[in-house]
Amino acid sequence: MAKKEVINMIDTFSEFKELKSIDRMTMISVLEDSFRNVIAKMFGTDENYDVIINPDKGDLEIWRNRTIVEDEELEDPNTEISLTEAKKIDEDFEVGEDVTDEVFFEDFGRRAILNLRQTLASKILELQKDSLYNKYKEKIGEIVSGEVYQIWKKEILLLDDEKEELLLPKTEQIPSDFFRKGEHVRAVVERVDNKNNNPKIILSRTSPVFLERLFELEVPEINDGLITIKNIARIPGERAKVAVESYDDRIDPVGACVGMKGSRIHGIVRELRNENIDIINYTSNMNLYIQRALSPAKITTIKLNEEERRAEVFLRPEEVSLAIGKGGLNIKLASMLTGYVIDVYRDIDDFDEEDIYLDEFRDEIDEWVIEQLKKLGYVTAKAVLGVDKETLAKEADLEEDTVDELFAILSAEFEDEE
């Protein structure tokens, strides 16, 4: 019966190996260490034992090595054997020689087998924890799926395909998230805690990385590297802004992310509980970047303070509410996306009397020049005249002659009024 128990334990470990993908060498090593651990506890040392394991067949061999001593000099029966006992094995044995004989673990008694069971269980648990930690440490930033197993007030317990435990804290859930037991949930691996060798896999649905990974799944051009997500600003469950850039002039990054009739973006929006997602073209031109980030508001003028990372944005009164957005979401996300603190100001009430929109100069100024200036946030004559010529030429990518002509036309209009 005892022998059967030992073999059963080896079989059990073999099953564990199949389930947890533990490599053969690790499995054999753990089994051998467990047997040696019990032998060392019984005899004080395991150095004179050879443990041979074949887990595939459930075979176990233990060989003991002892030195032959005179009968009256025998002190340690574990490491020594008397000459009389040795000659029972082979008549030719002499003092000083080594004797190797097979011993059977089941002969060590019930206590040894219980110790072996406890040691093996402890090592298996340790292996399981190490395997779980290493597996999910490599998955940080990746989307995983789990089945809702238990719902608590502060977190939800999920089980992955291998029944490993994953935690989704309330703080990492979208405010409108609602899950039922048995439901499958997608989230990104936020971090893996391993306090006291007790790994905890923490998931998140509020992380910007979760949104980024969803785009990678839905938009092949992003997955292929043709389109890059440059930055994401997100208020989970409410609204998000995503800045994208294409390395191929033939690809419209915004259109590719939205998809035909919104086919690509709709799947992401549904996953995020109807979170509104604005996709904008990234640009290194901060004036234009801020203007796009504040969309749908149309900006009159922008003044940047690069040292303090602040932007003063001037808009017509009817555009201010659009720039700020419901509950201040639009301006907050624009600030998060661009990294600039954005201050919004209304243009003066007597604007129409003091300034002129560039659109009114279409007969004198090429349309493409006007559009280029408007993209930079310069939509009025005074906004353009308030900028240094050299700066404007650089920002709008215009020739010096073109800038000089532009300034002459705009200045002349105000001189005529005077």
From TrEMBL:
<feature type="domain" description="S1 motif">
    <location>
        <begin position="141"/>
        <end position="206"/>
    </location>
</feature>
<protein>
    <recommendedName>
        <fullName>Transcription termination/antitermination protein NusA</fullName>
    </recommendedName>
</protein>
<dbReference type="GO" id="GO:0003723">
    <property type="term" value="F:RNA binding"/>
</dbReference>
<keyword id="KW-0889">Transcription antitermination</keyword>
<dbReference type="InterPro" id="IPR003029">
    <property type="entry name" value="S1_domain"/>
</dbReference>
<dbReference type="InterPro" id="IPR013735">
    <property type="entry name" value="TF_NusA_N"/>
</dbReference>
<dbReference type="InterPro" id="IPR015946">
    <property type="entry name" value="KH_dom-like_a/b"/>
</dbReference>
<dbReference type="GO" id="GO:0003700">
    <property type="term" value="F:DNA-binding transcription factor activity"/>
</dbReference>
<dbReference type="Pfam" id="PF26594">
    <property type="entry name" value="KH_NusA_2nd"/>
</dbReference>
<keyword id="KW-0963">Cytoplasm</keyword>
<dbReference type="GO" id="GO:0000166">
    <property type="term" value="F:nucleotide binding"/>
</dbReference>
<keyword id="KW-0805">Transcription regulation</keyword>
<dbReference type="GO" id="GO:0031564">
    <property type="term" value="P:transcription antitermination"/>
</dbReference>
<dbReference type="InterPro" id="IPR010213">
    <property type="entry name" value="TF_NusA"/>
</dbReference>
<comment type="subunit">
    <text>Monomer. Binds directly to the core enzyme of the DNA-dependent RNA polymerase and to nascent RNA.</text>
</comment>
<keyword id="KW-0806">Transcription termination</keyword>
<dbReference type="InterPro" id="IPR036555">
    <property type="entry name" value="NusA_N_sf"/>
</dbReference>
<dbReference type="GO" id="GO:0005829">
    <property type="term" value="C:cytosol"/>
</dbReference>
<comment type="similarity">
    <text>Belongs to the NusA family.</text>
</comment>
<dbReference type="InterPro" id="IPR010995">
    <property type="entry name" value="DNA_repair_Rad51/TF_NusA_a-hlx"/>
</dbReference>
<dbReference type="Pfam" id="PF08529">
    <property type="entry name" value="NusA_N"/>
</dbReference>
<dbReference type="GO" id="GO:0006353">
    <property type="term" value="P:DNA-templated transcription termination"/>
</dbReference>
<dbReference type="InterPro" id="IPR009019">
    <property type="entry name" value="KH_sf_prok-type"/>
</dbReference>
<dbReference type="InterPro" id="IPR025249">
    <property type="entry name" value="TF_NusA_KH_1st"/>
</dbReference>
<keyword id="KW-0694">RNA-binding</keyword>
<keyword id="KW-0804">Transcription</keyword>
<dbReference type="InterPro" id="IPR058582">
    <property type="entry name" value="KH_NusA_2nd"/>
</dbReference>
<dbReference type="Pfam" id="PF13184">
    <property type="entry name" value="KH_NusA_1st"/>
</dbReference>
<dbReference type="InterPro" id="IPR012340">
    <property type="entry name" value="NA-bd_OB-fold"/>
</dbReference>
<dbReference type="InterPro" id="IPR030842">
    <property type="entry name" value="TF_NusA_bacterial"/>
</dbReference>
<comment type="function">
    <text>Participates in both transcription termination and antitermination.</text>
</comment>
